[in-house]
Amino acid sequence: MAMALKKKSEDIASGEPFMAFAADSESASVLEKVATATNYSVDRIFSGGIPQAITVLKDIDTPKILVIDLDGSDNPEEALGDLADVCDPGTKVITFGSVNDVGFYRHLIDLGVVDYIVKPLAADTLIATLEKLTKPVGPVPVESDRAKLHVVVGTRGGVGASTVAMNLAWYFAEEQGEKCVLMDLDPFFGTSALQLDLEPGHGMRDALETPDRMDELFLARSLTQVSEKLSLLCSEEGLSRPMSLDEVGIFKALDLLGDAVEEVVVDLPRSLVPASQSLLSGADVITLVSDLTLAGLRDALRIKAALKEWGATGEVKVILNRVGFSKTGELPLQTFEKNLGHPVAGQIPYDPDQFCRCLEEGKTILSAGNGKMKKAVELAAKHICGSEEDTKKGIFSKFLKKKGK
């Protein structure tokens, strides 16, 4: 598939609409099928990976869409920087390769790559990505703040982290009027849909296990609508069907949400904390829900230490729940805060009658509760929302590298 190319004098609009580079024959064969199916010329498919792409593109106007095989390069991230130097502004770059790592995927997206597909390259996946790029669009909108990412984790089982996450999401949507998605990442024992008396969704497994096949439409169909501004991404999987929650799938879902929502609340089971380093490191706010027990304090400190080790930059807040459940087994608040190293962000009293009434009615504490429990939950939500000025872009920040910059 060799082809001699000469520098064109026309502007970028006259450049090739599509070019692709494949480092192996199997990928090249898939690219030919894709080109045929999408009415692009198969003559614009070249042998070789990113080094060959740089050699070819430095002497021509960059195509509107560029598909690059990252295999064959010793340092693909550095090579992408070199590729950016020969690309014109507006070029959409789709990459694929053998590396299956969430950190690598995130870095490529941060560089401005449209998508990264893990080999073996699937024709339908690439076609779906190309179709999204070629849809007619209106004027380019002004860049806006991306969704703020909140991760809620319980330090112990049964401390009510899911209840806090649900009410926080409800507060964003119904009190602040912001579009919010609650992601319940416990596909087997999650209670988000149960708390609201809703049928759980049925697409979370496919969405998170096969991120390369996920698109906006598929993700939208996987959401359970709670209200005009609040949606759930949850599931209730059979216990006989093991499910692996890959961080790549979670990040792909977050990216697809894009500007469609303003807040994302992730209810993260504590058993997944060790495997969720990238998610926690990229969160804007991490809320640890604990009780006043010694075990709760110990595990809050352990999680905080891990977050520091992983380089997490989000604000860490601690909410005490079920306060008063066992007077004899609880630490004094002053002792808890002294060992924690900072004041807690809220204290929610133990009120089983109020909680059960809300559960029976399929409502959140903030929508159906009253008295001290509701006031405490509302105060905690306000604190988590951040009275402090938010100076961070969050996990959705993207820095596009373009020629001439």
The beta-strand count equals: 13
Question: What's the arrangement of strands in the largest beta sheet?
Answer: 8-9-7-10-6-11-12-13
Q: Alpha-carbon distance between the termini?
A: 32 Å
Give a short account of the largest sheet.
8 strands, mixed
| Helix-residue proportion | 25-40%
Instruction: Return Rg in Å.
Output: 24 Å
Order of helices and strands: EHEHEHEHEHEHEHHHEEHEHEHEHEHHH
How would you describe this protein?
The protein is α/β, with parallel strands linked by helices. Helices cover 39% and strands 16% of the residues. The protein contains 16 helices and 13 strands. The protein has helices spanning 25-37, 50-57, 76-86, 102-110, 123-134, 161-175, 192-195, 204-209, 216-222, 247-257, 277-282, 294-310, 333-340, 352-361, 365-368, 371-385; strands at 18-22, 45-47, 65-69, 92-97, 115-118, 148-154, 180-184, 224-225, 230-233, 263-268, 285-290, 315-323, 346-349. The strands form two sheets. It has an eight-stranded mixed beta sheet, sandwiched between helices. The two termini are 32 Å apart.
Which features would summarize this protein structure in a list?
five-stranded parallel beta sheet, 16% strand, 16 helices
